[in-house]
Amino acid sequence: MHDRPVDQRIHDFAEVDAGLTPEEAIAEAERCLQCKKPLCVKGCPVNIDIPSFIREVAAGDFKKAAVIIREQNMLPAICGRVCPQEVQCEGACILGNKDIPISIGTLERFVSDRERENGTVIPQKKASTGRRVAVVGAGPAGLTASAELARMGYQVTLFESLHEAGGVLMYGIPSFRLPKEIVKAEIDMVLSLGVELHLNHLVGRSVTIQELMSYDAVFLGTGAGLPYFMGLPGENLPGVYSANEFLTRVNLMHADCFPLYDTPVKKGSRVVVAGGGNVAMDAARVALRLGGKVTLVYRRREEDLPAREAETARAKEEGIEFVMCTNPVRIIGDQVMTGVECVRMEMCDPDATGRPEPVPVEGSHVTLDADVFIAAIGQGPNPLLISELTELKRGKRGNVIVDEEFRTSLRKVYAGGDVATGAATVILAMGAAKQAAHAIDRMLREE
Amino acid sequence: MVSRVKCSLLTGVTDAQNKKDEVLSTTIHTEYNYGVTGLFFVEKTEMLADKVFQMWVRAPHVAHHAQAGQFVIFRTDEKGERIPLTISAVDGDSIRVIFMAVGKTTSHLASLSAGDHIRDVAGPLGKPSEIKKYGTCVMVGGGVGTASLPIIARAAKAAGNRVIGIVGARNAGLLILEDEMQHACDELHITTDDGSKGFHGFAADFLKQVMAKERVDCVWIIGPAIMMKVTSECTRPAGIKTFVSLNPVMVDGTGMCGSCRVQIDGTTKFACVDGPEFDAHQVDFNSLMQRLRMYQPEEKESMERYQAHICTCKGGERHA
């Protein structure tokens, strides 16, 4: 990993991590023990043949390495950047017991970046089955399901409600972590398999349920895009954002380039972000790049932060102030917001999650001056389509219930990704989508 | 079609600015290599009143599914913002929107003509109007808000209601859709603030007169926020079911950002998916108006930049 210097990167949205040189990649790949029973593959939700691709990297055959990866994963340049490898492949790497594990993610990224620069090889496709499958939502789950189904010979129609495909990869994750031209290149690859993309189509509105059900099978990958608010007094004051809105304005609509681009965003001089996940880190680091002094408040302890350690470390390096065991209780302001009233939290007995339950300390109120507040406390499943499908069984948190084959309670309708699990990671959504695609294939072949 | 030279919004701006734009457009925006069907052609445009325009756009996925009360999101071009516009009429594969050219995006829209295109049209969005047999319905339109009414009035009439229309504006020159409303309603009344046509006064005053004369079962009020706030007070004491259509600032328009959140009976709702129509007597209009003002400085800046460009290109008709 080569992070660009802090004083340089906090002024732009270019990628923070500059990646590996070929020499470094080969040296890193040579450390691989080439285990007979590789644990790393078990740790990979999409089962990439990791030792094989690393062997090719060590041998200097980057093209062959790319082909091996693409056999299992159509979005490798994305996954190499945003997968939590430390708890997946790298977490399982045997070298990690004594030394540092192989940087599998960095190598995956290196290989796919090289491939993109030197011309990609489109994977093989099976002959057409003549069956049609509708995929709803062009995020990580929908793109993966589309690619898998297209390769198995299905005619795939992919519906996306926004004006760009990519879902959270476009509107959520900032370009300094995931450059948008890389997302677009990987989407191009999926579309090159013959997937028909319909942008600006909100299924349930632009496409009726009846029209949707006319396909031989349906995959729902509508994600978790419903932002949760905290229900604080003053939350509707100008200056208060959900992380989704703040990030969408900047990442998708390019509000950082206002007025060149038409969409504005409030560039706060003092910004408070509430939350401790990856989305909170992203929002904080975007606000910083827009010129704000940023404070991140989290109700639990530092060791409880759910964000990836590397991203937390980068956020700190970049100068974001972390205030732990603190929770907002009120947004202060008359016409616009001027501050956030917070209360200190005390860690008590473990709660249902096994972590100490944070409980407000009476009389510990403090006020942080701020002109922008961003709530990054999580998202729920997009309710629009799944509530129109009245017979679809849903869990307590609104998520679609699926069985081990990713079947929903509706015949021929499958679901995977955040809409089924609640907000999780890109790679888990991809893993689920891939399995769902194969389940759809089995179902249609048995018919 | 007569071919005309498109003038870039950036023409005439300083070289340094152009350079910055170039850099930005290459680093930020890389086009997809594949052909995504995405252009929505403008079929007809017309100026209806001072600064008020109607535009027919071909968008079959919207036109084939649109119902009364729903809206679309337009993004005019690659650098454009996403703005919500009510679907004012549908004909075959096409939809009509009506807007007032007040800011940059609406001014740009007003400069387009038949054969031009809109980059993105998403919809239909929002919940349709709650149409059922109420009895006597009154449709009150204020200014450009009247655009939403004919389609709702026709649906209400088709459901067996007697429909009374009240179309109001500041003056006679700003009145729109009189003929269409005349056809859609059983009776139509015109009001102007200055008395230049029809009843001299606010639509609210006339609504009170109607209520004094006959039984009113349901009312739609669509216009500027302040007009909806004031007018809906007329029906509150009698407890008459009253709908208003809210038009807060939106981004995605599909329930994913919360930009359009409004307070309805003390709880937060998203106008894009829970609305845009709500029970008028439960709406916190003050919060709505406060949020509508949120980006006024930015809107002004964007408009000034756009106008400066129009000056440098000698007021050419096209500023894409």
Helix tally of chain B equals: 10
Strand content of chain B: 25-35%
Q: How would you characterize the largest beta sheet of chain A?
A: 5 strands, parallel
Helix segment tally of chain A: 18
Query: Could you tell me the radius of gyration of chain B in angstroms?
Result: 21 Å
N- and C-termini, Cα separation of chain B: 17 Å
Considering DSSP H and I runs of 4 or more, what fraction of the residues of chain A is helical? 25-40%
β-strand percent of chain A reads: 15-25%
Rg of chain A computed from alpha carbons, rounded to a whole number of angstroms: 22 Å
DSSP E strands of chain A, number: 16
What is the succession of H and E elements of chain B? HEEHEEEEHEEEHEHEEHEHEEEHEHH
Average pLDDT rating of chain B: 86
Quaternary form:
heterodimer
Sheet with the most strands: spatial strand order of chain B = 12-11-10-9-13-14-17
Properties at a glance:
heterodimer, A: five-stranded parallel sheet, five-stranded parallel sheet, B: alpha/beta, seven-stranded mixed sheet, globular
Helix and strand layout, with pairings?
The complex is a heterodimer of chains A (447) and B (320).
Chain A: H1 6-9, H2 22-30, H3 39-42, H4 50-58, H5 62-72, H6 76-82, H7 89-92, H8 104-118, E1 132-136, H9 140-151, E2 155-159, H10 168-171, H11 180-191, E3 196-198, H12 209-212, E4 217-220, E5 226-227, E6 240-242, H13 243-252, E7 270-274, H14 278-289, E8 293-297, H15 309-317, E9 321-323, E10 326-333, E11 337-350, E12 356-360, E13 366-369, E14 372-375, E15 379-380, H16 383-388, E16 413-415, H17 418-421, H18 426-446
Parallel strand pairs in A: 1-2, 1-4, 2-3, 4-16, 6-14, 7-8, 7-14, 8-9
Antiparallel strand pairs in A: 5-15, 10-11, 11-12, 11-13
Chain B: H1 15-27, E1 40-49, E2 52-58, H2 60-63, E3 71-75, E4 82-86, E5 89-91, E6 94-100, H3 104-111, E7 117-118, E8 120-125, E9 136-142, H4 149-158, E10 162-169, H5 178-184, E11 187-192, E12 199-200, H6 203-213, E13 218-222, H7 225-235, E14 241-245, E15 261-264, E16 267-270, H8 271-274, E17 277-279, H9 285-292, H10 296-312
Parallel strand pairs in B: 9-10, 9-13, 10-11, 11-12, 13-14
Antiparallel strand pairs in B: 1-2, 1-7, 2-6, 3-4, 3-8, 5-6, 14-17, 15-16
Helix pairs in contact in B: 6-7
